[in-house]
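REQUEST ID: PR-0412
SUBMITTED BY: lab tech R.K.
PRIORITY: routine
TASK: structure prediction, single protein chain
INPUT:
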Amino acid sequence: MLSTLLTTALGSLQASFSVLLTLSYGVLAAHLGMVNSTTAKDVSALCTNMFLPALLITNIGKQISFDNFMVYLPIFVWAVAYGVVCVVVGMIGTKVFKLPSWVVVAVAFNNTTSLPLLLTKSLTNTDILQSIAGGDVSAAVERAQSYFLINSMVSNAITFAIGPKLLKVHEKTDGPEEDIDTNESDGEPVDDESISPTEQTSLLPKPITNHISRTKSAASTQFHRLPSWLQNILSYASSLFNPILFGAILAITIGITPPLHKAFFAKSDKGGIFNAWLTSSFTNIGELFTSLQMYDARLSPSITLLITL
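STATUS: complete
OUTPUT:
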């Protein structure tokens, strides 16, 4: 009994120390000037908008299926209830103690998705999960990570739905950035062959870049012609339907659709036509989320929310 307790304590200590070391590497890099605040913001946005959606697709999509969908339903219910209760507690705190509005977001939402994911990943290298994993530690850890990701998915959906209002963030509707210069008099792209190419020069043919520029300009013009109330609705909808939500929708759709589940996650010789290339590419970038987000964990939840909006 004592040896089991010591083994569990030692394994937990090692896993926790691994997470703290990952965080310390980011702190050290910041102190040595290898990264700055701009870099940290860019990395956080990249993790949220690309790496996390890819991780949702490969993890939740693989774990969830049409047969076991109801097993994950309590996780959805818990995530929603937890978020709502935290929002209510935060609002009560702001009313009673006269705290600023961002306290609600700080209480209800957090940027700690990578912490439990990295911790459970570290635990796979210890022996403390053998007794509760049913013999397959890797499969058990993947199931645990899918639970964390589902909770994170719901939390992020609620964050983008009510976070901007709680933080009183109003997106400014600026005109789209143009990749190429335009003629101010008629809005036509300037086709100046004498301009030397730079690192920012598009590799696409000029007719395509011109067409993209005109399309962006036309879309911006039409948007500004809409009534202000409709512009607000569309802006709010665009912030709600973010990459994380799209990734979650794709993950659930792939998971509960047997032909898609087979195509994405079965072995190549058993019908997994996407597994070796598309799913593998999603896995490669999805695995970057846990360590890179923890490495860049210096950003506060409120700043991360502002970045990703």
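NOTES: Residues 2-31 form the longest helix (30 residues).
REVIEWED BY: pending
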